[in-house]
Design brief:
The complex is a heterodimer. Chain A is mainly α. Helix content of chain A is about 70%, strand content about 0%. In chain A, helix 1 packs across helix 5 and helix 10 packs antiparallel against helix 12. Classes of the chains: A mainly alpha, B alpha/beta.
């Protein structure tokens, strides 16, 4: 029983950054833009979140700054992919590389962080669970609440209807007199805000400081969660929770020693979530169908 | 009768080309005005000018006598102008009601409230009932037939309060019964006080539905006739602009080529293709062919008629090796090719003119010469390619005659000629042609049909899938009808009346 509780607690602690970034991925792809820049956006969110929190000595200011930085990075990606009509994949990769270099530079130049690690940052409020450690409830609440809200937005509002429509058939949206580019720009910016929030949680709720290797591939895990969650906000949340669970289980098994850890190579557990995603993509775990216009640039002149 | 909509000297150029040249007309309530003309005559550009998709270089548009300048299509829509596009603009995973109200969604509790789905469904149901376009507002568009999807497009326009409705080639993908139903819908719209613009290639249908016919040629309005008493031959002549040439004649007989279509004759009565009890599934895994048997002889053109989505596409794909058979047997010249893939079938002399030229037939980014060389063995030598391309360009009247031009830069008709030049140039044993004349102007259509006939006269068997029953009757020897993946009947071309085929296509006679 207590092991199960430990598992739940570590999922609630580790899943939120990936879950929010995955939500960002869903928001963007449902509007027809593949956001391959999630990794870079999370990195911006994490860095600017930590910086602002250190400067203001407030985790809340840090969180807002992370969201803002994510939104700005999302808007940059949107500007490249939608208005400059750059290839979405290339633009996303470029954003990741930009984040990699720029943040490393800023880390030294602005924070003078030795060894690529900042001082401890103010943490978001957390709940003491006695022997189980502390639960950063703000992150957990955001992880549970935001996908639910996004789900309602997509399903129940006119904006959500257009959002889904523009990811399936932008021509229909244009014919209905709605701006395809405006809608997509908004969606990708919102995607950036969500991923930036997710990134900011890394220093502010998970590790307590910023490290140069952040987010260490979590943005790509989020991309996998989008597919595994079948492009729905709640599905992506479920996938993120599943990945975090597999991660926690792997830590549990390798740290507790035991016969199983000796028998099964640790790497196998590490790879398990992605193996499952591959299987999901190949159609074994239910069919994963992306939005019809996902990744297709909007060209009003095309016939 | 005061006109609702007036065009006064509208012009629009694209580069050097004057696509619409000083066109003026007036459209009154209760009237159906048909716009006819060849490809590139300016019909679609004219519609786009009237509905705010393009801005005119010169001239003006008047609505109810007042001059209007559309800033956007939405602007024209707000004033009561709507268009039913040739290519549907629907979102498949959404419901009928969601598609209809998209962009103007009703909300609960005023302006900022959530989407009022129930009200949307109720209003769509009301409009559908009133206009005689029965449909389930909650149904998903993905599950609808082509005809029903078109109904959704019409409902979109009507729900938005259009008083002027424009139809761009609305019957291109419909069977005869569905086309007739659409024509009735159009007449009903006019009776109800709306003004209708109707763009179509099919003169018979135009005469059945329109009150007046406006003929466009090279951007100019060359004549406006009363539909009553107008003869299709006269209109066709006005369209091509050559009073002496018969409207379905070839553009120019190519030097050395057969000038007149060879007579329909069956040479040696030898079976080229034998398909027995073929069954296969469609892309979604549902049964598409359920036991189709066909035999095609040398020199024979067999037409395949049917309502869209009854297995025609899958049949063509099975015959060209693009879709595996679940059951049955496929033989070409007595050789069992049931399990052969496209490569082997091509090697055995099966040519394919697919439905979607630029997706299944040509590479838009490659040149004319390169497209012609696709699939031919051996190294590509530039000089030889260009020489061969020049010959094909002459034989098939591809314009402009530039071997180095990108295929995507050619007009639809010339792309089709290019595709035909490659496929028929290999002297195939079996030609599978799917809608080879769809969307082409009359001259290009005539050329395509003549070349198919020549291929048959040269000993090939031709399978021609088409929605155009007149075309099938004109060049096919016999017509088989597909319905729900089965052959529901067969008739000699000259005995195949619309009524008989329609009955077979609906499956009622089976």
């Amino acid at each position: 029983m207590s092991e199960l509780t430990t598992l739940v607690v570590s999922i609630l602690a580790f899943a939120p950054p990936v879950a929010l970034a995955a939500l960002g991925g869903v928001l963007s792809e449902r509007a027809g833009v593949v956001n391959l820049g999630l990794e870079g956006i999370m990195r911006f969110g994490a860095f600017f979140g930590a910086w602002a929190a250190l400067a203001s000595q407030s985790a809340w200011v840090g969180l807002s700054a992370g969201a803002l930085a994510g939104g700005a990075a999302g808007a940059l990606l949107a500007a490249l992919a939608i208005f400059a009509e750059a290839d979405q994949i290339v633009a996303g990769v470029a954003l990741n590389l930009l984040a990699l270099g720029l943040v490393t530079f800023l880390l030294e130049w602005a924070l003078g962080a030795a060894g690529g690690i900042t001082d401890p940052v103010p943490a978001l409020p957390s709940l003491s669970l006695g022997g189980l450690g502390r639960l950063p409830w703000v992150a957990a609440a955001a992880m549970l609440l935001l996908p639910a809200l996004a789900s309602l937005l997509l399903a129940k509002t006119p904006l959500g209807l257009r959002w889904r429509a523009v990811g399936e058939n932008p021509r229909a949206v244009a014919a209905a007199g709605v701006s395809v580019r405006g809608l997509r720009f908004f969606a990708v910016t919102a995607s950036g805000v969500a991923a930036g929030l997710g990134g900011a949680l890394l220093p502010l709720a998970v590790l307590g400081r910023f490290e140069d290797r952040m987010p260490a591939g979590q943005g790509f895990i989020a991309l996998a969660a989008v597919v595994f969650g079948k492009w729905s906000p709640l599905g992506a949340l479920g996938a993120a929770v599943f990945f975090a669970g597999a991660e926690a289980l792997q830590i549990e098994i390798s740290s507790s020693g035991g016969a199983l850890a000796a028998l099964v190579p640790r790497g196998l557990f590490l790879a398990l979530p992605y193996l499952l995603t591959l299987l999901a993509l190949a159609g074994f775990v239910g069919r994963a169908v992306p939005p019809a216009a996902d990744g297709v640039p909007w060209d009003p002149e095309a016939r | 009768m005061t006109p609702i909509l007036e065009a006064r000297g509208l012009s629009r150029s694209f580069g050097e080309l004057r696509a619409v040249d000083r066109v003026s007309f007036a459209l009154a309530a209760g009237e159906v005005l048909a716009l006819v003309g060849e490809n590139g005559a300016g019909k679609t550009t004219l519609l786009n000018l009237l509905l705010g998709f393009y801005r005119p270089d010169e001239g003006e548009i008047a609505l109810d006598g007042a001059v209007r300048r559309w800033r956007s299509p939405a602007d024209a829509e707000a004033r009561g102008l709507g268009m039913v596009h040739q290519h549907f603009t629907l979102v498949e995973p959404l419901t009928v009601a969601e598609n209809v109200v998209l962009g103007r969604e009703p909300r609960r509790f005023g302006l900022a409230g959530p989407f009022d789905r129930r009200r949307a469904e109720r209003e769509v149901a009301e409009v559908a009932e009133r206009e005689g376009l029965p449909i389930d507002p909650r149904g998903r568009v993905a599950e609808l037939s082509v005809a029903s999807r078109q109904r959704v497009e019409i409902l979109k326009v009507l729900w938005r309060g259009a008083r002027v409705v424009a139809f761009d080639e609305p019957t291109g993908a419909l069977g005869p019964a569905e086309s007739e139903a659409l024509c009735e819908t159009v007449r009903r719209l006019a009776r109800g006080g709306r003004a209708v613009l109707f763009v179509s290639h099919k003169l018979r249908e135009v005469l059945a539905v329109a009150s007046r016919v406006a003929v466009l040629r090279a951007g100019r309005l060359v004549a406006t006739l009363d539909a009553k008493g107008a003869e299709p031959e006269r209109i066709a002549r006005l369209m091509v602009g050559d009073a002496s040439a018969p409207p379905t004649g070839l553009p120019r007989p190519s030097p050395g080529g057969a000038a007149s279509p060879p007579p329909r004759s069956r040479g040696v009565d030898e079976i080229v293709l034998r398909l027995s009890d073929a069954a296969c599934r469609d892309d979604r895994g549902a049964p598409a062919l359920r036991g189709v048997s066909l035999a095609l002889h040398t020199g024979e053109i067999v037409g395949v008629a049917g309502v869209d989505g009854n297995g025609q596409r899958e049949l063509a794909e099975v015959l060209t090796g693009l879709r595996p058979l679940d059951a049955g047997r496929l033989e070409v010249e007595g050789v069992d090719l049931t399990f052969a893939r496209a490569r082997e079938l091509r090697a055995r002399g099966v040519a394919h003119v697919p439905e979607d030229r630029l997706r299944g037939g040509l590479f838009g980014a490659l040149s004319v010469a390169e497209n012609l060389a696709l699939g031919s063995p051996g190294p590509l030598r530039r000089r030889r390619l260009v020489a061969e391309a020049a010959a094909a360009i002459r034989a098939y009247d591809i314009r402009p005659p530039e071997p180095g031009m990108r295929a995507s830069a050619l007009s639809g008709g010339n792309q089709q000629k290019l595709l035909l030049a490659r496929e028929l140039g290999r002297r195939p044993k079996l030609v599978v042609a799917v809608h080879p004349t769809r969307g082409l102007d009359l001259n290009a259509q005539a050329l395509v049909r003549a070349r198919l006939r020549e291929a048959a006269a040269g000993g090939a068997a031709v399978l021609l899938v088409s929605f155009d029953l007149d075309e099938l009757r004109e060049i096919a020897d016999r017509i088989v009808v597909l319905c729900a993946g089965r052959v529901t009947g067969e008739a000699a071309a000259r005995e195949a009346t619309d009524g008989r085929l329609g009955l077979l296509m609906s499956g009622a006679a089976a």
